[in-house]
Amino acid sequence: QVQLVESGGGLVQAGGSLRLSCAASGGAFSINGMGWYRQAPGKQRELVAQITSGGTTNYIDSVKGRFTISRDNAKNTLYLQMDSLKPEDTGVYYCNADGRYYRGGYYGGQFNSWGQGTQVTVSS
Predict the structure, then answer these.
(1) What pLDDT shows up at residue 1?
(2) 76 — phi, psi (to 5°)?
């Protein structure tokens, strides 16, 4: 089972910056797409940004120009650099990854994993 562990959340004032990280581990696997989602209190979880294995990125309009998603394939790690943070960016941020896992050198199946979430709070 591929596990994802996020880090880097915290409390920051409006206009500040935070960098989230998400490390994948758990046997032999290859990751295809990765993404960051967030859930604000009383709202549904929404996709914030996503990146393909080839590096193609996509962002929701509200974070374009402020957030940057990136990944280090050698380290199986996903990042989200968040600048010019606003109070409306507050929420629990989750990372997601999908791909394939292997058992004994053979294809074992597909996975779609979520991290446990990290809290981001932006004060006004």
Answers:
(1) 84
(2) 50, 45
Interatomic CA distance for residues 11 and 88, integer angstroms: 13
For residues 20 and 61, what is the distance between their CA atoms, to the nearest angstrom?
Answer: 19
Rounded Cα–Cα distance for residues 89 and 97 (Å): 22
Residue for token digits 């990944």? 71
Q: What is the pLDDT of residues 63-85, one digit of tens each?
A: 999 999 999 999 999 999 999 99
7 three-state secondary structure: strand
Rounded CA gap, 70 and 50, in Å? Answer: 9
Shortest CA distance to 78 belongs to which of 59, 56, 97, 64?
97
Pairing of strands 67-72, 106-114: unpaired
